[in-house]
Amino acid sequence: xxxxxxxxxxxxxxxxxxxxxxxxxxxxxxxxxxxxxxxxxxxxxxxxxxxxxxxxxxxxxxxxxxxxxxxxxxxxxxxxxxxxxxxxxxxxxxxxxxxxxxxxxxxxxxxxxxxxxxxxxxxxxxxxxxxxxxxxxxxxxxxxxxxxxxxxxxxxxxxxxxxxxxxxxxxxxxxxxxxxxxxxxxxxxxxxxx
Length: 194
What we know:
The chain has 2 domains: 3-140, no CATH class; 162-193, no CATH class. 21% of the residues lie in helices and 30% in strands. It has 4 helices and 8 strands. Strand 4 (56-65) and strand 5 (69-83) form a beta hairpin. The model is unreliable at 1-7 (pLDDT under 50).
């Protein structure tokens, strides 16, 4: 489901991601803070790194009423895990992201002058923050996570981690076209030694 399709659906008041704006009111300048621990659903990550399904996400929200809607801002914190893009070792670290987005009131000038996929909407006094927070997490995750900046990865010949191999580690490689010449030279050298 695309973000555009999700914005057109009715948010579920039972979802921990959903905020009821009636608690904030429509008077510009009123504000309310929320703190929630939400279990991560699927989709909070990339192929190689992300927040594991079922992991806790600590969400601190600030919902402020404005003339055109409600502005939702805050932070989300969770542990991410994945694999190093170079050596394939598991890695993990704490991640905190910041976010902020305007959710337009129905019949506001913002709603009337923007496309449905440009600005989020308040639907029946409810705002669904899941997509906004998911987008903030995904934009923060590295495309090629590293266990450490100087990770050298794996030896392309044997597949062992360079960090575990000695400084003199090498593989003798020879072009197949020269292998026959080497065999000839070796047999000639052995014949000369006799």
